[in-house]
# Entry
Amino acid sequence: MQFDVVCVAFPAWEGDYVKSTVHLMSELASRRKVLYIDYQYTIKDVLQVLRRNPFRIPVKHILGLKNRVRTIPLPNGATIYVLSVPPIFPINFIKKHGFFNLMLRFNALLIRSSIKKALAQLQIKDYVMVNAYNPIYGLGLFSFFQPHKQVYYCYDEISASVWAKDHGSRLEASFMQKVDAMVVSSEGLWKSKKPYNDQIFTVKNGVDFNLFQTAFVPFSHKSLEKVIGYIGTLDQRIDYAIFEQMAQRFPTAKIVIVGRVLDDMADVKCHTDVLRQYPNIVFEGAKKPHELIDYLKTFHIGIIPFIKSEQTAAIYPMKVNEYLAAGLGVVATDFAPLGEFSSVIHIADTPDVFVEKVGDLLENDSDDKQKARVAMAKTNSWQERGRQLDEVLTKIIISAKV
# Structure
């Protein structure tokens, strides 16, 4: 069935970390015409990047000095269209619901005209609107996208997001009841969002298998110095006691952390300051996806040391498939339902058990065990997830016509 896709995205198209929305829309673009409506930067954002622009924000497109619609060739041979809307007024600081809603409508009006022009420029008429974790502007723009089908793609628990703490939950609840269907990325999110809309589907996160498989090194060829690796952000989701226990239990092993460290937050910094005192814990900072490969090649184990919370229960971690594609043994806490991986990863319910399983893998892993891990990751590629999402959107269109 022929239809196009318009995605109102929360994630910016640019950036150094892996974004499920970017991957899924890129895969859909190999099948359909896709208009990606980029993150809605505020006037404050633009003024800041005019001085310094480390994230390569497309300022000239945002200001209309260049065509707001960029045509971007993708590695899979497809093309995607990315729309930069005009800068909007910052409103997240507003506490009062009435004033916030008023400013939201005003910002939505600023955005709508750009979207309308882009739809006309690209000759997009019959489409599905996918709102990617952007329910606030989903509501603000809802009437603009009617009568087309609207789908909410939710990949995180908004109630636990600092940026949306004042209005996110209430506006998301309203938006979920309005849309035609929802797509979530985990079992935890399916359970928490199901009460709001019966039309709910699961498309889990994937992996750039071809990229991460290049990090595969047979266990027997690894260096004698054991390396325990973590790829991801250090924030409030981390069980820092696990890092300390590992550093003490395995003093001759190197514990390498590759990712952003949010130690501008006091409740994170108090933990990371302690970790920095251990000589066998190494902080490498944030890296681009292709830069992770050299690190993964040196790892003996990949870990996922999340605490159990409302937020983590909703996570389907992308890093699990990235580790597996590289053939790594994986140890994770039982923060979320990970039963589908039970045959290829170790799941621990306490820090002591976690550290014990790490020790077992360091001593007893083998080349033979790596094969099943790689095979599991291959079934979870972004190509497969894109195909699943396309099936879901087609099903939504067909059911609407019956």
The chain is about 40% helix and 15% strand.
